[in-house]
From TrEMBL:
InterPro entries: Ig_TPPC8_1st, Ig_TPPC8_2nd, Ig_TPPC8_C, TPR-like_helical_dom_sf, TRAPP_III_complex_Trs85. Residues 728-738 have a biased composition (Low complexity). Residues 711-738, 1174-1198 are annotated as: Disordered. Residues 835-954 form the TPPC8 second Ig-like domain. Residues 633-783 form the TPPC8 first Ig-like domain. This is Trafficking protein particle complex subunit 8. Residues 1142-1248 form the TPPC8 C-terminal Ig-like domain.
Length: 1279
């Protein structure tokens, strides 16, 4: 024992003043006002043993009650008001009191199996009583955390805990369950009643506590004679009572009359025996033969027994025991003596024998004294005796008794409202000691733990209470489940709430309930845990909880509620494939068992991606495909702005009529035409790793036929249809006269996202609303998603006028049927090589009875697509492109004067009727590699003035993939020996990976340039096939001639069997025109340039059968604006005789030369010509003498101009400096004269041209120097 315990034992008894003050305080603050204190006052109360005869029980059973049950309702007194004086002389009054009555056969430790069955019955009965609550939504976690405990904690927990506490009743080491009195009950109908009383207290029939010596057999006995007024006369009962008093004494004998109701059965509301009549048959009215006099007599009997017999006897017993204990154990001398006597027992094992502590041992008497004082509310006296006894048991190593005393000390500290720390210390000590004992102490540890938990709850220590619940031993899983659930509520009531532990312990509890087949309790625990995991990222726990609840509800046959939870696990994308298969299998099994068809809003399988919603409705704008509808409206507007009549210029359009004739609520609606499909695209995503099929995917619509768009010639008032119909999506299948919705079936692979293309076709004028989309996951599961207007942000505004339409509504005004053109381009390839030329055909059809006229068309990329001659449909391609001998043929495809026009006007007499297609030839050329979007829009007018809509447009969109073919580049350098002549190097590379090309021809476009090969193509390219990855370079001569007879084409093929293609004819000239516009840059505007067109053919593949005719693959590659100018703006040519004969006998020799200077820039250039005479002895090539190469110009570093060393010097006659001014792209000639004095060969390159650009703001060079080129003049002596 600790020093604190020793100090407590050595304290002197309290004074009378202290005891009086305490008693007054106890009366003023009744502990029963607190829940736990009330529990203690109900459990630790005096026990009365009842020994009745069979006839007594038989008479009581007429009321559906036993004798004990008949008395039990009257054993609780809330205001008994009995004066009590225990060990002190200061009395106090006892207000609340309770008796516990038990048959002698029940005063024994409960059987383990019986106790287990009783506990299971409590739980099972509680489950039956919660049927209605299982189908209600659980309370929000926020509400539960702020409410008091009884509001959400199941009430049956109290009954379960009481049964656990009573499972260790009537222990030998505790005295508060020992009877304080015995009632011997005999019926007046019994034979020889006096002997019956004697036989009842036979030792062989007494409880084991008496026979084992643990309890004093000398307990007060009271002899009760029960008289049944229905079976005997009162005189006999009175006579027997007199005999009893003569035999047993007058004070201990009582007469009790029952069943006095002779005429009718008494029905009481409320019935005091309802909580206790467990043995009554169904429908039996408890206490039906007891009239008011009988009930009053029962009440008086129990009250008198308590106040006049039991309480005074307990007072007397306390005073006697207190004197004995004071004489033998209190005082310093007695304490030293007791410690010395017990010192030798320290090494002995734990005492297990009951005989050591019989009822007459001092330890048992102290325990009886403490328990009696506790039951009579004298907690100070009880506490002092418990402390005294605790040391004895600890020294004796009687651990179970020691733990029991520590447990009672903790309770007395609590009831005294003294130190909480001391109370908790004693309960912890008792709990740990019980557990340390082993199996024999588990039941007592459970009771101690439950009392300890309640003690902690009263002080708000819910976290500590939860840990105690967790420590309470539970050999049975069902008991552990209840403890875990109670612990979870403690975590919820903690400050702050511990929500994670609350949910976790509920899940553990639910699993244990399931193992014990308590499905309803498992459901309750799991459902309460849902409030914790809702809205969190704990997706695996969330799925587990919903899955288990769904299975359990299905087990109970509540398939509707089961489906509600199973639907929560459909989008379990985070789970493994195995778990997903398990979830789906059980889901469909439960769905099949329901036998119902469910329509679920926003079904999570598959997931609808509302952000992908795309709606295409056609008013005056129609689309050839969904791809065209997805193009930005600004793209189409830029194409149509030159074709569609402007609102400011047009007198009346259908938009004007709409604003004038429609009511305000319909002005905000989108427009669609009856008989034309309203198309909707929406994507579905499969969150699972499993493949799932969905069927009957369709749009949900509402149709109102009471609104109609008037004709253009009608009055401004709209007459509504009084008999207008309203159809919804559910009616669409039966009433196809209003609208028709498409249905599609989709199979989604694991993780796949698929776009469903849906449509609805309105059949009549009115108002159509698209409300959502529906689908079938199975025959019994229909999912639907309602389109919320707030979630659809500007899905239609990109296709509607924002000033007129409300983009947040899927509402469409259906107008009457109109003509609608459908167009298709035949033979348009999806994948093509760059430069490939094709002849196509555009087919236009009109399915309406109303014809269309005044057609116009515009193409977004004329580099790719040109319009052919509508009158020349049947032409032979490519022979139609061959050059004709007669040049007078006028190109019928495209007039050169119309190249600048961007809108193509169909012939004026073009009218497209129903079932009469119109064909228009087109030319296609893949201009550049890459992915290309080709847009084409056709404008047409409706040949019916009664319609509100005057015109419509057809928009088509085509995606092309253009692969690289040939890379062609040109490098032009001027010829030094000729003005206006150039050397051209053409480089060609085959960029394909598999295809061969044959070069056909190279043409210079226009009439200014003549082109020719420097070397024969057979020598340069003998094979004729340009294989994949192969490169070719060849040189050509380019000359500026500016004549109509210029040879502009060069044949590059092998042989001359094929005709030259005419590059001046359409479509080649047209495509070249748009290539010039595309390749043009700002700095090339005034430069001298030349255009080239390379024509080639692609060889046929070997995979194509020879008997299948294939059109030849013609390619055209265009190089435009190839500049012939260099960095210096001027070019010059020195011309004159190369050989001159002269007779030097008379004079020197003069030779006349001419220098032509050309300004190739776009600026005015000033040129200064400087000539230099040859210095004597100079050599143009350094120290070289004799014959040597004279073609090398002089070094730029020396800047020296000298003549040959072997000839005499020469001089330039005339002015040594000449200055000229040249206009842009102009030329001039300057005369020069050179004088020689001896025969020989002279290099006349000793001159310079200094140029200066005037008025130039460009970044190019503004001035420079050009040195003379070698010009050799040979002078011969004339013979």
């Amino acid at each position: 024992m600790s020093s604190n315990d020793s100090n407590k034992i050595c304290r002197t008894p309290v004074t009378e003043l202290t005891r009086s003050s305490f008693l007054h305080h106890r009366i003023m603050a009744d502990p029963a006002h607190f829940a736990f204190r009330k529990m203690i006052l109900d459990e630790i109360t005096p026990v009365v043993m009842v020994l009745p005869t069979p006839l007594v029980e038989q008479g009581c059973q007429k009321n559906g009650l036993s004798f004990v049950q008949m008395l039990t309702p009257f054993c609780v007194f809330n205001n008994i008001d009995v004066p009590v004086r225990t060990a002190s002389d200061q009395p106090y009054r006892l207000q609340k009191f309770k008796l516990r009555m038990f048959y002698g056969s029940d005063i024994r430790q409960p059987n383990i199996e019986v106790t287990k069955e009783r506990l299971e019955k409590v739980i099972a009965d509680a489950g039956k009583g919660e049927d209605s609550d299982l189908y209600l939504d659980p309370s929000p976690i926020e509400t539960m955390a702020t409410s008091s405990e009884p509001e959400f904690v199941p009430a049956w927990f109290q009954y379960f805990n009481k049964e656990l506490v009573r499972s260790v009743s009537f222990s030998d080491h505790e005295a508060f369950d020992h009877p304080v009195a015995c009632l011997l009950v005999v019926s007046s109908s019994d034979e020889d009643p006096i002997n019956k009383f004697v036989d009842l207290f036979n030792t062989n029939q007494l409880p084991p506590l008496l026979s084992d010596g643990a309890m004093d057999p000398k307990i007060p006995k009271y002899f009760i004679l029960v008289h049944d007024n229905q079976t005997g006369s009162l005189e006999r009962a009175t006579k027997i009572l007199a005999e009893m008093r003569n035999t047993f004494g007058s004070n201990d004998c009582r007469l009790l009359c029952i069943n006095s109701s002779q005429d009718q059965l008494i029905d009481r509301e409320p019935n005091p025996w309802d909580p206790y009549g467990s043995n009554a048959s169904s429908g039996q009215n408890l206490g039906c033969l007891l009239n008011h006099e009988d009930v009053d007599e029962l009440k008086d009997f129990v009250r008198n027994l308590s106040s006049k017999d039991i309480i005074p006897n307990m007072e007397q017993r306390i005073r006697v025991l207190n004197q004995q204990v004071s004489a033998t154990r209190k005082g310093f001398r007695n304490q030293i003596k007791n410690l010395w006597w017990r010192k030798g027992k320290e090494d002995t094992p734990e005492v297990q024998s009951v005989n050591m502590y019989t009822f007459n041992s001092i330890e048992s008497q102290i325990r009886v004294l403490g328990d009696y004082a506790f039951m009579l509310r004298d907690y100070e006296l009880a506490s002092s005796n418990y402390r005294l006894l605790s040391t004895d048991y600890k020294l004796d190593k009687a651990w179970k008794r020691y733990a029991g005393v520590q447990e009672m000390m903790g309770l007395t500290y609590f009831m005294l409202n003294q130190s909480k720390k001391d109370a908790e210390y004693c309960m912890e000590n008792a709990f740990s000691t019980y557990l340390r004992i082993g199996t024999s102490g588990k039941g007592n540890a459970t009771r101690c733990g439950l009392w300890w938990v309640e003690m902690l709850k009263t002080s708000g220590q819910y976290k500590d209470a939860a840990s105690v619940y967790f420590r309470i031993p539970g050999d049975e899983p069902l008991h552990s489940a209840v403890m875990l659930e109670q612990a979870s509520y403690c975590y919820l009531l903690a400050k702050p709430p511990m929500l994670r532990k609350y949910g976790f312990h509920l899940i553990l509890s639910g699993d244990l309930y399931k193992k014990c087949d308590q499905i309803k309790h498992a459901i309750r625990a799991y459902r309460n845990a849902l409030s914790v995991f809702k809205g969190t990222t704990w997706s695996h726990i969330h799925d587990h909880v919903h899955f288990q609840i769904g299975k359990w509800y299905a087990f109970l046959g509540r398939f509707d509620v089961a489906m509600k939870h199973m639907l929560e696990i459909l989008s379990c994308s985070h789970q493994s494939k195995t778990m997903q298969e398990l979830y789906m299998r059980d889901f469909f099994q439960i769905l099949q068992k329901t036998g119902k068809t469910y329509s679920i809003s926003r079904l999570q399988l598959p997931i609808v991606n509302i952000s992908s919603l795309s709606v295409v409705s056609e008013d005056h704008r129609t689309y050839g495909s969904l791809a065209a509808a997805s193009v930005k409206e600004s793209v189409w507007q830029s194409l149509e702005e030159e074709m569609v009549p402007s609102l400011s210029n047009a007198k009346t359009t259908w938009l004007d009529l709409q604003s004038k004739l429609l009511p305000n609520k319909l002005k905000q609606s989108n427009i669609c035409v009856a008989g034309e499909a309203l198309k909707v695209e929406i994507s579905f995503r499969n969150p699972l790793q499993l493949s799932i099929p969905i069927s009957n995917v369709t749009l949900m619509c509402e149709y109102s036929a009471n609104e109609a768009l008037p004709d253009a010639n009608s009055s401004s008032e709209i007459q509504g249809d009084e008999d207008g119909k309203i159809a919804t999506g559910s009616e669409s299948s039966s009433d196809t006269s209003l609208f028709t919705s498409s249905e599609v079936d989709i199979t989604l692979a694991g993780g796949e996202t698929t776009v469903a293309q849906l449509s609805v076709i309105p059949r009549k004028e009115g108002l159509l609303r698209v409300t959502g989309v529906s689908w079938k996951l199975s025959d019994s599961m229909i999912g639907f998603y309602t389109f919320d207007a707030d979630l659809i942000k500007k899905k239609i505004s990109k296709q509607k006028r924002k000033a007129k339409q409300d983009a947040n509504k899927l509402e469409f005004l259906v107008i009457k049927s109109l003509p609608r053109l459908e167009g298709v381009i035949h033979n348009l390839p999806e994948t093509v090589y760059a430069g490939n030329l094709h002849r196509l055909s555009l087919e236009l059809r009109n399915s309406s009875e109303i014809s269309v006229k005044n057609l116009k068309m515009k193409i977004s990329h004329p580099r790719f697509l040109n319009i052919g001659n509508p009158e020349a449909l049947d032409v032979n391609f490519p022979s139609c492109l061959e050059k004709k001998e007669s040049c007078a043929h006028k190109d019928a495809d495209l007039d050169a004067t119309k190249l600048s026009e961007t809108v193509f006007h169909f012939p004026k007499d073009t009218i497209i009727h129903k079932e009469t297609p119109f064909f228009l030839p087109l030319w296609f050329r893949a201009a550049t590699p890459g992915n290309m979007s080709l847009y084409l829009t056709i404008y047409y007018e409706i040949d019916d003035k009664s319609t509100a809509m005057r015109f419509r447009t057809l928009r088509t969109h085509h995606m092309l993939e253009v692969l690289p073919s040939l890379d062609v580049s040109f490098f032009i350098s001027p010829c030094s020996s000729r003005l206006q002549e150039y050397v051209v190097r053409m480089d060609v590379i085959n960029r394909t990976s598999l295809r061969n090309f044959k070069l056909h021809q190279l043409s210079s476009v226009g009439n200014e340039w003549q082109i020719s090969l420097i070397e024969s193509i057979e020598h340069i390219f003998p094979s004729g096939n340009l294989e994949p990855g192969q490169a070719l370079s060849c040189f050509l001569k380019l000359r500026n001639v500016k004549t109509t007879e210029t040879e502009m084409d060069v044949w590059l093929g092998s042989g001359s069997s094929e005709a030259i293609l005419d590059t001046k004819r359409a479509p080649l000239v047209n495509f070249h025109h748009y290539e010039r516009l595309h390749q043009k840059t700002s700095h090339q505007e005034n430069q001298s340039t030349v255009d080239f067109m390379l024509i080639s053919r692609m060889e046929e593949t070997e995979t194509v059968p020879s008997d299948v005719p294939t059109p030849p693959q013609i390619f055209s590659h265009h190089a435009c604006h190839c500049s012939v100018s260099t960095k210096r703006p001027i070019w010059w040519l020195l011309d004159g005789p190369r050989v001159n004969h002269c007779n030097f006998s008379n004079s020197f020799c003069e030779t006349k030369l001419k220098m032509t200077i050309h300004n190739s820039s776009c600026f005015v250039v000033s040129v200064r010509i400087n000539t230099f005479d040859s210095p004597p002895g100079g050599s143009p090539s350094g120290n070289k003498v004799g014959w040597h190469d004279m073609s090398t110009p002089p070094s730029d570093d020396t800047k020296k101009l000298v003549s040959l060393e072997s000839v005499p010097p020469f001089i330039w006659s005339g002015s040594s400096t000449t200055r000229v001014k040249l206009e842009p792209n102009s030329a001039t000639e300057i005369s020069l004269l050179v004088t020689t004095f001896a025969p020989g060969t002279y290099d006349l390159s000793n001159y310079t041209l200094n140029w200066n650009i005037l008025d130039s703001n460009s970044s190019r060079e503004k001035e420079g120097v050009c040195y003379g080129r070698p010009f050799y003049l040979t002078i011969l002596r004339e013979e």
